[in-house]
């Protein structure tokens, strides 16, 4: 029969049972969102969560980042126990904070502290986008400002890894003012001769890109990171035209003169070490 | 130009019209309605108190955006003498969404900078509705540094929906331009006084907003995002803007309560646009007092106090470990 030549197409998708899904231990394999190839999770982690095939940079958690940069047992955390309030009595905000605390194991969207990078002492702030999209409220602003002040006191260079959707809506104008607070701290640090290196990771947008993220003596980014002031959708609605594919990527910013370099994650530690060495002695000139 | 009426003030306007009609009727005919008119006028007085004395956040948002609301250039003309506008960032272009220049204030040389909206469609297009590009912020910074060199106090008028969200703005570094202003303003050794006269929209407002004093006109707003934006983002519904205006705490009274601004500059009943000259006098009074306080400080004291001011903004607690 002729119709036998045409195979019957399935008109439905197979959805594995809940139990079946759990047959594969969570996290054994990992699919790259960019090239769609599947790898052993261990393999990806060995490459600092960079896809071995296409070079896609998976987001790092704050502590993964710390482990990837600092010499073993040298990192000391600052202000670990500082937590947010709900200053505007914003509906559901307290619950959301609590939920993210549990989910991420962090008290807020940034970890600050000091440690040694190939022997060079440095102060750092590392943002974690798993906590409220890395948004900046009072605690993020305060912790970063304090880390910069500490760097100034202790003559340390200051390195920041940003990952943030911008200012935190639920703290309203208090969030906005953290842009000013951190920027003044940087000005004071800079006046004292302090070295600041900013590395923008995916995503760095809004009020964070419009304050400390852009204020390093060196501004770097990880490949493919989304970096910009306004959101893509808002811009498209405003100018009523489609934006190019690579709009607001690290590479786009580099091309437009907004970045010093785009640095691959696996070269990050070496690059930072060289820069720290070039700026010896100390982060702050005597 | 005919006064534009906001929804909440309609009862006042309608009553005023009624009184006017009755008065006309009285003069045209022999019937004496003066006692009725008197009654209505008493009622109007109460109604004005009630309506303008009880403005809700959303009413103030409408007032801050009023098409006839006085702009930076209106106040410059009323408050300063010898204003000379200066143009361009020396890098790319001249952004007319920000005006800046030198002038005298009661004999003292100053630099004045502000966002500038248009008064009609044509002017609004030229000024991009008061929404700056990076070159606007860079022009502002260039002239602030000039002020620093010649030891002139800086006065900033804030009135913008926000920095322009456009393709070219991103390409030329909108983020960097705003960030740089925040950092550089922190280090200027002259007094900086910022006055929010209309909308204080997010980072685009803040880039002219690092001051030793921040004042707000009574019916102006200052926020991290517009009420419409907040509603769309948080509740996926921009129609909830009215609710967002209340929740986000964006009025002058809210910001005073949060200890972010120094003073609320009172507005005339019915808004600043009722009488620009009178409104300018209210601004002048506060500006003069602020400047007197600040010019007596040394530059070291000024910078230290500026840091103290912003350092203390924010609410947090510490877990006992």
Automatic annotation (TrEMBL), chain A:
ZnF (C4-type) residues: 32-54
Gene3D superfamilies, per database record: 2-enoyl-CoA Hydratase, Chain A, domain 1
Main location per the UniProt record: cytoplasm
Listed pathway(s): Lipid metabolism; malonyl-CoA biosynthesis; malonyl-CoA from acetyl-CoA: step 1/1
Cofactor, how bound (note): Binds 1 zinc ion per subunit.
UniProt keyword Amino-acid biosynthesis, yes or no: no
Role played: Component of the acetyl coenzyme A carboxylase (ACC) complex. Biotin carboxylase (BC) catalyzes the carboxylation of biotin on its carrier protein (BCCP) and then the CO(2) group is transferred by the transcarboxylase to acetyl-CoA to form malonyl-CoA.
Protein's UniProt name: Acetyl-coenzyme A carboxylase carboxyl transferase subunit beta
TrEMBL record, chain B:
GO molecular function, one term: ATP binding
Coiled coil (UniProt feature): none
Keywords: ATP-binding, Cytoplasm, Fatty acid biosynthesis, Fatty acid metabolism, Ligase, Lipid biosynthesis, Lipid metabolism, Nucleotide-binding, Transferase
Top EC category: transferase
Highest taxon above the source species: Bacteria
The organism of origin for this protein: Salirhabdus euzebyi
Taxonomic placement: Bacteria, Bacillati, Bacillota, Bacilli, Bacillales
Subunit structure: Acetyl-CoA carboxylase is a heterohexamer composed of biotin carboxyl carrier protein (AccB), biotin carboxylase (AccC) and two subunits each of ACCase subunit alpha (AccA) and ACCase subunit beta (AccD).
InterPro entries given in the database record: Acetyl_CoA_COase_a_su (IPR001095), ClpP/crotonase-like_dom_sf (IPR029045), COA_CT_C (IPR011763)
Main location: cytoplasm
Compartment(s): Cytoplasm
Keyword Nucleotide-binding: yes
PANTHER family in the record: ACETYL-COENZYME A CARBOXYLASE CARBOXYL TRANSFERASE SUBUNIT ALPHA, ACETYL-COENZYME A CARBOXYLASE CARBOXYL TRANSFERASE SUBUNIT ALPHA, CHLOROPLASTIC
Job of this protein: Component of the acetyl coenzyme A carboxylase (ACC) complex. First, biotin carboxylase catalyzes the carboxylation of biotin on its carrier protein (BCCP) and then the CO(2) group is transferred by the carboxyltransferase to acetyl-CoA to form malonyl-CoA.
The protein's name in its UniProt record: Acetyl-coenzyme A carboxylase carboxyl transferase subunit alpha
